Amino acid sequence: MSDDNPHSSRGSAGKSWLDRIASIFSAEPQDISDLQDIIAEAEVRNLIDNDTKGMLDGVLDVSSMRARDIMIPRSQMATVDIDHTIEQLLPILMENNHSRYPIVNEDKDHIEGILLVKDILQYTLDPTKAEWNLRDLLRPAVIIPESKRVDALLKEFRQKRYHMAIVVDEYGGVSGLVTIEDILEQIVGEIEDEHDLEEEHDIKRMASHVFKVSALTPVDEFNESFQTSFDEEDADTIGGIVLHAFGHMPEKGESIQLRGLTFKVSKSNSRRLVQLQVTCAKDNSPAEEE
To answer: What residues does the CBS domain cover (predicted)?
Structure first.
């Protein structure tokens, strides 16, 4: 007997969908792929959009990650020495634009505490407080093992209201650091701040033949400025060209020569290049920008 109800097939599909949802949450899933399949089907059925799917996938990814998977490596940590004067400190703060810095004693294996940039404002602006040192401003450093689950760390960040943790290996040596932003970026994607926006698509002359170049500068814009001929099919940005040439994620200070130019990494994070220092010969220096 045929079913003349035009909504019959739709109702069956809806019931099948609900049955699958119920089966997932009424019993422990066999693995995360079960949940990923449900999320993917929900997007296909337009129950969620692509951005929502991306965030849900990010949450599932975070549930299986450890601190070692997302930490900023030791070599890329911006730190301040405990004996730095204000004159030595300010250039570091201006270059990196972070709100928190680990304070080290001699080397990065000896973390004395965490400096919040806002804590030094009262000392730099008040002439009556001319005598001070960083030891007076230190906040306790949170130490976690490399094996710390990222989802558990995020919960601690929220509950205890701290934003940075120092990651150590099994021998107690510092491996890197993790911030709450690093975790959130695993879920919602790259979080750009006002400093990132200022650097984007920007070429600035620093000296006669030395330039500060955002890694996000499009290849065609870079070629036009430096009279080069990097292939736009190889990468969209000059950072992509340089990263491909290195063949690995370079550390701050690493350099490479390409097409007669010297590219030095002046700023990067665990996922991408941020800023490059480009030194060129006199005959292919860009014209001075207004």
So the answer is: 71-131, 137-194
pTM: 0.56
Average pLDDT of the chain to the nearest whole number:
79
Cα distance between residue 123 and residue 116, in whole Å: 13
Instruction: Single out the residue in 170, 188, 206 at which a domain terminates.
Output: 188
Reported as type and span, the H/E element at residue 175 is: strand 174-179
Q: How many domains does the chain have?
A: 3
CATH number for the domain that contains residue 151: 3.10.580.10
Amino acid at 239: G
Q: Could you give the strand order of the β-sheet that contains 174-179, starting from the edge strand earlier in sequence?
A: 72-73, 174-179, 164-168, 143-145
Q: How confident is the model at residue 289 (pLDDT cuts 50, 70, 90)?
A: very low
Q: The domain containing residue 145 runs over which residues?
A: 68-188
Q: Which whole-number Å values give the CA distances from 233 to 200, 203, 236, 270, 277, in the listed order? A: 20, 21, 7, 25, 23
